[in-house]
């Protein structure tokens, strides 16, 4: 299953071979039976909390149909672990996980390491495994944009001194234990909560 976060709303995309979860959806649509190109016009995603399910045969096709008017952007980042502590940043007054856009011809895992190093000032975190992929929408340079994020679990054994990247509006970077993750959850985005869930066993 893939999830696209739109402010407080979410569209879940489920492969047709999988069983539909036993939860409440505002609407369930089948990509072969419904015109997905008009889906975003049918619901007030930005002023309410909507949860939709789209059952697809081809995920890329279904995603492109729903978000045909959006620019697509790729990004990568991750949760860094050093001993029993994990690295988080504060940006625009919200807790976040270091991440950023892929450069040309850059692989997601390369971008994740580079962005973490740039945004937090540490050197040499190493990829452990891919946690998962999320999508979220936002406005970039005045254009509606959907960002695909690759999220990784990384290990780190260097100095825990951090240098938040101020030009990226990062006001602080902190190392905290997992028992303190509730502090992050209380002031973060739904897409980041999803990544925390992915990393619960890391």
From TrEMBL:
One of its GO terms (molecular function) is bis(5'-nucleosyl)-tetraphosphatase (asymmetrical) activity. PANTHER family: BIS(5'-NUCLEOSYL)-TETRAPHOSPHATASE [ASYMMETRICAL], DIADENOSINE 5,5-P1,P4-TETRAPHOSPHATE PYROPHOSPHOHYDROLASE MUTT. GO terms for biological process: AMP biosynthetic process; ATP biosynthetic process. Residues 71-200 form the Nudix hydrolase domain. Signal peptide: none annotated. The keyword Hydrolase applies. This is NUDIX domain-containing protein. It comes from Fluviicola chungangensis. It holds the Pfam family NUDIX. InterPro entries: NUDIX_hydrolase-like_dom_sf, NUDIX_hydrolase_CS, NUDIX_hydrolase_dom, Nudix_hydrolase_domain. Keywords: Hydrolase.
């Amino acid at each position: 299953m893939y999830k696209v976060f739109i402010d407080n709303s979410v569209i879940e995309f489920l492969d047709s071979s999988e069983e539909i979860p036993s939860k409440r959806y505002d609407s369930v649509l089948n990509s072969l039976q419904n015109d997905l190109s008009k889906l975003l016009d049918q619901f007030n995603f930005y002023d309410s909390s909507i949860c939709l399910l789209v059952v697809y045969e081809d995920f890329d096709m279904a995603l492109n149909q729903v978000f045909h008017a959006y620019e697509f952007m790729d990004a990568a980042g991750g949760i860094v672990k050093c001993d029993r502590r994990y690295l988080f940043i504060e940006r625009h007054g919200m807790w976040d996980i270091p991440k950023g856009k892929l450069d040309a011809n850059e692989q997601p895992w390369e971008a994740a390491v580079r962005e973490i190093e740039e945004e937090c000032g540490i050197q040499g975190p190493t990829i452990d495994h891919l946690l998962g992929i999320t999508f979220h929408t936002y406005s970039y340079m005045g254009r509606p944009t959907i960002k695909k994020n690759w999220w990784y679990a990384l290990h780190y054994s260097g100095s825990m001194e951090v240098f938040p990247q101020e030009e990226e509006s990062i006001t602080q970077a902190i190392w905290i234990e997992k028992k303190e993750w509730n502090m992050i959850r209380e002031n973060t985005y739904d897409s980041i909560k999803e990544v925390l869930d992915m990393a619960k066993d890391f």
